[in-house]
Amino acid sequence: MGVISTDSPDSAAAATARPAMARVPLARTVVFGAVALLLFLLVVLPFGWVLNNSFHDDLTGAWTLGNYARIFQSAGLLEPLFNSLLLAVATAVIAVGIGVPLAWLVSRTDLPFRRTIRVLTLTAFVTPSFIGATGWILLAAPNSGWLNALWRSLAGAEAGPLLNIYSMTGAIFICGIYTVPYSFTMVSSALDEMAVELEDAAATLGSGTLRTMLSITIPLVTPAVIASFILSFIQGLTLFGVPAFLLTPTGIPVVTTKLAEFYQLFPPEIYMAAAYCMPLLLVTAMLFWMRRRILGRKQFVTISGKSRAGRRIALGAARWPAFGAALLLPLVSVFLPYAALLLVSLTRAWGQGLSWENLSLHWYWWALFGNSETHTAIVNSLVFSTLAATLCVMLGTVVAYIVERRMVFGASLFGAVATVPIIIPGIVMSVGFFAAYTRAPLNLYGTPLLLVAAFAATFLPIAYAHGGSILKGIGPELERAARSLGAGEGPTFLSITIPLMGGGLLSGWFLVFIPIIRELSVAVFLITPKTNVMTTLIYNAKDGGNYEAVCAMSVLLLLITLALVAAAGPLTRLTTVRRTSRKSGRKTAPAEGVLPT
Length: 597
Hints:
The protein contains 26 helices and no strands. The protein is mainly α.
């Protein structure tokens, strides 16, 4: 008489795998211990030092609440807080107010040249905002800006400046236009991936375009809109380069530039700077708490089968006016500033105007071959970004695997720690690493390791979220089969899971590498002349007033970044095709391996 087993296949596989797992307790312990140690060193320790230092006095080193009392009793310290909040709110409003309609036009209508608009908008996404600010200084500086010079030639030499980029309005404008791509990307992705049966059904039942959008489309993308508003707000709150370039010359302080002032004092007020970071942390943490509360009350989901492309909404006579409106963002964020940077970089002395005699490649030769500091910064940027992105993706993927496969008790704690940097502004992370690792016994100040670690920690949430999203689409059956046949967890992960993740890991690497190579606020307190990177070199050179050199270095950084973006898609597709071909033994259609944005 046969006996019917009541064990599930999963439990049977787990029971078979237990002997194999029991044979490698040391390896498991070493891996989990190394991951826990890295998370502690990269996230917990820097944040802990910021919190600890905020309660100490810079003169005596004693415990005190005086730093916080000073913040709320000093008008000179409260003003930057209010200015930062104003800049952040205005940035978020502009980003959502422009990005959401633009995403709807590109994803849901028959707008002409939709792909071109998308590519140009993403070009603004990869452009460092402080480089955009440099381009607009050339265009809209009140005295020497080209647009103001054109205005005076039309309105008369006595006319005042039409534009003044050195103002809060100018900073809001720059922060806003270079934050729009965040909102556009998140909302357009939500619209592209949305199952459209409900919209089609509403149209079939006679609902108009506006009513369908208000009652169906907007509720479904509400989570993306809220997330994009929060991200845009945080960008406006924590940016350092744009306020340093546009507001510092006019004496308008914000929190990030005030933090830089604390480090420039002699002696530097490091403990006061730590306390001054806390309002940024509180505001960002509160925003994420509010998002969770708002979205936790109601969920917007669709229950359907395979989604299909919906009908494009016909704009009719409004098609070309809408196209013209959609081109405004690329015009002000890409075409005009890029043109200004390129023209100035090609002149030997831009104050002499454009002429054949003044055109020269001198500054590019100087940047690439004639100046050792610039050459070192280019090499440092590439090397540090490569190492940081690799460390970040490796750690983020392993943490995502531990969390998704529940490899250890309390695995969710690993994920929580890996996500914490998303609420820590980059300049606060810089302060934390300065506090934690510029003292004995490590004393890493002036070493490449300090910058690599700070970059990796800052962008760890991106790598972790990206790795988790890939693993959610990979079933654990093959891993269980491998372990049931005696393979250990490590070999299974390396031989089964990593190949299955394929081009997704490469796209994740580019997704981390690109923001690292253009990052300024994380590096600003940690660099030395030997560890300068391109962003900090441009920031420092701008103060010297040599705009020709600044523009040449900015163009080189843009070319490197855009070349990497252009290479990301083909490399990802190639990796995916090769992996699929090896598995199937035959040629297959290329998988879509577009770099996530």
